[in-house]
Amino acid sequence: MPLFDVYPLYNVTPVSGKGIHVYDDTGVEYLDLYGGHAVISIGHAHSNYVKAVTQQVSQLGFYSNAVQNPLQSQLADKLETLSGCKGYELFLINSGAEANENALKLASFKTGKKRVVAFSNGFHGRTSAAVVATDNKNIIAPINAQQEVTILPLNDVEGVRVELEKGDVCAVIVEFIQGVGGLDQGATEFFEAVDKLCKANNTMFIADEVQSGYGRSGQFFAFQHYDVTPDIISIAKGMGNGFPIGGILIHPDIQSKYGMLGTTFGGNHLACAAGLAVLNTIEEEDLIANVNAMGAYFIEKAKAIPEVKAIKGRGLMIGLEFDFEVGDLRKDLIYNYKVFTGGAANKKLLRILPPLNIEKQHIDQFFEALEKALTYALVEK
C-alpha cells in the first residue's frame, strides 16, 4: 500500500540518534539543529529518557483516564514548579494542534462566545478550529471554514480593541514567538495591551507555547518575557522529547466539570513517564541557563556573517534571514555538510531549533558549514 503523498522528503533515512546527532542507514552522522520541529528538547536517546520510558513500558504503557494515574499528578506538580505557573491546572492530550483545539473549546465554554482573534503568519495546528486560526488558506478545508476567526496584523492593538468590543470574541490566540510563520515577535506593548483588553472584555487570552515553551526562548514559557497572565497555555513539542504528548495549562478562574473535555490517549502512563524525564533533565542539567548562554553565542556568531540580513527569535528558537530563498541552502547543508536545519513560511529564513543541551562546538561546526555553503553559493552565482 503506498503512503499518502503529502510530504516532500529529503533523501536521508535516520535510523538512530545520540545527543545532538542523528545517524542514517549508511552510518553517516548529521548535526541536528532542527530537532524534528523543536521536538527533541533534551537530545536524542538521553539516558534519563531511555531509562524512564523503558522502565515504564515494561510495567504499564497505557490505561484509560477512567482510573487513577499518579504519574499525571507528578507531571503536573513538576511542571508547576519549573514553569512558575502557580495555581494553573493541567489537561493532558497528544499534540500541539489538539492542545490549541481544546484551548479554543474551553474558551468558548467559559465565555459563551464563539469568534476567535488570531494573527497574520500564525500557526496553531491542523484540527478544526486551530487550523482556521492558522494564517494559511491552503490547509483550510471547506468543512473547517464554518469556524469564525478574524486574522489581524501582529502589533495591531487598535484592531484587537475594535474586535473585542463587539462582544462576541471568546479568545485571542497568539504565539509569543511565531514558529512556522518565521520567528516574528510582537512588541512588548502589544502583548501587554492585548492581555488587558482580554480581561476587560470577557475574552480568554491563549498563549500558544507549543513550540516556544519548555525553555526554548530562555524562559520556561515565552510569555514570561512580558507582564501578562494568559488564561490558557498550550504546550506540546518539546514536552516529550519525541513521545507524542501535549497539554493545556488552565487558569483557576476557569472551572472544570465532568465531560467538559476528554481524550483516549492523553496523559497515558508512557507519555507521562517521557514528560517527567524531560522536566527532570531540564532541572538537573540547568538547561534553561544553557539556552540563554548558547543562544547568545549563536547570535554573536551570526552577526559576523555578512549574508545574514536579520536575526530573529530568542534563546534557541532562532531564525537567520537572507536576501534569497533558503531552500537550496538547506539541501546543501544536509547533503554536503551533514547539518539539519529548518525552513519557515518566510522562504528566506533558516530556522534553528536544536536540543537545549547544545554546546559551543556544535554551533561552531554549524557556522563553519554555513560559511562554506554560502561561499560556494556565491561562486555558483
Your description of this structure?
There is one protein chain. The chain contains 11 helices and 14 strands. The model has no long low-confidence stretch (mean pLDDT 96). It is an alpha/beta fold. Helix 2 (47-59) runs antiparallel to helix 8.
Annotation keywords:
2 domains; single chain; 17% strand; 381 residues
The tally of beta strands, per DSSP, is 14
Largest sheet: 7 strands, mixed
SSE order, as H and E? EEEHHHEHEHEHEHEEEHHEEHEEH
In terms of DSSP E residues, the strand content is 15-25%
Q: Note the total helix count.
A: 11
Please identify, by name, the CATH architecture of the largest domain.
3-Layer(aba) Sandwich
Helix content: 25-40%
How many domain regions? 2
- Gyration radius over CA: 21 Å
Give the rounded overall mean pLDDT.
96
CATH fold category name of the largest domain: Aspartate Aminotransferase, domain 2
Principal-axes shape call = globular
The class by helix and strand makeup works out as: alpha/beta
Task: Give the arrangement of secondary structure elements.
Elements lengths: L13 E5 L2 E4 L4 E4 L2 H4 L8 H13 L10 H14 L5 E5 L2 H16 L3 E5 L8 H5 L16 E4 L4 H8 L4 E6 L13 H13 L3 E5 L23 E4 L10 E5 L18 H16 L2 H16 L7 E5 L2 E5 L5 H9 L3 E2 L8 E4 L7 H21 L1
Parallel strand pairs: 3-13, 5-6, 5-7, 7-8, 8-9
Antiparallel strand pairs: 1-2, 2-3, 4-10, 9-10, 11-12, 12-14
Summarize the structure.
The chain is α/β, with parallel strands linked by helices and 381 residues long. The chain has helices at 35-38, 47-59, 70-83, 96-111, 128-132, 157-164, 188-200, 269-284, 287-302, 327-335, 360-380, and strands at residues 14-18, 21-24, 29-32, 89-93, 115-119, 149-152, 169-174, 204-208, 232-235, 246-250, 310-314, 317-321, 339-340, 349-352.
